[in-house]
């Protein structure tokens, strides 16, 4: 059995109590590897290592140039090993190999971006009305605890680690229990690229036994979390005890809105891509497809015809457009929503397990039409390939339905009328809005949600800000006493 080790204080380590958990290939349901089952003692070791690397100055006091160079070397190594990483990511998560390869390229780009940004953090002179020099200095927050989900395993790790390291923070990262492998592969290169021991620590394990102690730990200064809204709420409450800085990237139920004047073929493609990419296991999935009534029937028909042609298959086959879901638990969850949908709306396509697959957590791409926005399938995040298509009569109704959700991560609007498109953009309560596209994501642009999709922004200069404190420094230039007494 291929056993991976965690990465604490620069060393590959097992868990203190010696437990392991299985990591699966979701296309075969077979065990791919094992990883250490960490508990709070392992988390404490990792936090102490990160604390020491921070407090000794081993990382925060390196120059920004040096930190940047190390991130660039890590990016170079990732590019060199991208074939291995892509294949492992695909096998472990079930995502099609072509998508996994895009992810790994984005991982390298993320480290390159923050490698460059490390030297571009600006500090300010404040124009105070006195004979004084007033400065705003930027300093790293300290030890960052980072908890990530399984849908984009190494990419989510990069979104967390790269800005934190560029800022001068040290890190303890807990990957999702389903998908810890690629980040553990990456950890093998930390010493080679020049990361001092303790700067990045990877702890594997389960949410309640490894994630929760990280959030509670008094020596952790900040928690960056990506995951479900339910767990986000638990984390926010727990972090309150030690007043940690918290950023939350949570789920969504994002509207993808189609007006009758949109390019029809592009719109059908955009509706399918928006909700079925990565098996629909995407926080920003356009899972509520809002369509103007005058094109509604033709639109549902167009989606259905194309959805039936989506090639399901083994993740490593290059023609595969949709692989299995990540786990048995996720498979059962999505299957239960497929059944619920049959009671709540009209099934247009899919709705079950595809024929011809004896093994693997495969589900059909599923489209429900004539959905009422109050139905559970339109309100709850399914996190799988299940689309709900909802008709609307005019712009006002489209905006009202789109915003009628507790979430606010993303949205898209399709129209050739630029005035209308921009009116709708302004009216949507979401952190990311696309026009005539859905899903493109760039490290240069901010990412994060409104409402219950969380707070804080990742990527771009916004991402590094979340790992920086601002220190005000006042330097008195008057040589005279204050003269008050
Ligand atoms: P979860 O919220 O279940 O888990 C996310 C991470 O939190 C995992 O590492 C998990 O560990 C850990 N965790 C679970 N319970 C606790 C706890 N009590 N304390 C600390 N950590 C805990 O989400 P999923 O992994 O199921 O991922 C899917 C969710 O992530 C979706 O809701 C999706 O929308 C969201 N997501 C949001 C993104 C965004 O950018 N907004 C991007 C990607 C996903 P373990 O795996 O061991 O349970």
Overview of the molecule:
This protein is α/β, with parallel strands linked by helices. It has helices at 40-55, 64-80, 82-93, 97-117, 153-167, 181-187, 190-193, 207-216, 229-240, 264-276, 296-307, 328-344, 376-379, 395-403, 418-427, 460-465, and strands at 6-8, 11-13, 20-25, 30-36, 124-126, 132-140, 143-147, 170-174, 200-202, 222-226, 245-249, 255-258, 288-292, 346-349, 366-369, 386-392, 407-408, 410-414, 432-435, 450-451, 454-455, 468-476. The strands form 6 sheets. A 7-stranded mixed beta sheet has the order 14-15-16-13-12-18-19, sandwiched between helices. Strand 15 (366-369), helix 13 and strand 16 form a beta-alpha-beta unit. The longest helix is centred in the N-terminal third of the chain and has 21 residues, at 97-117. It starts with 5 loop residues before the first strand and ends in a 9-residue tail after the last strand. The structure holds NADPH dihydro-nicotinamide-adenine-dinucleotide phosphate. The site of NADPH dihydro-nicotinamide-adenine-dinucleotide phosphate has 29 residues, from helix 8 and helix 9.
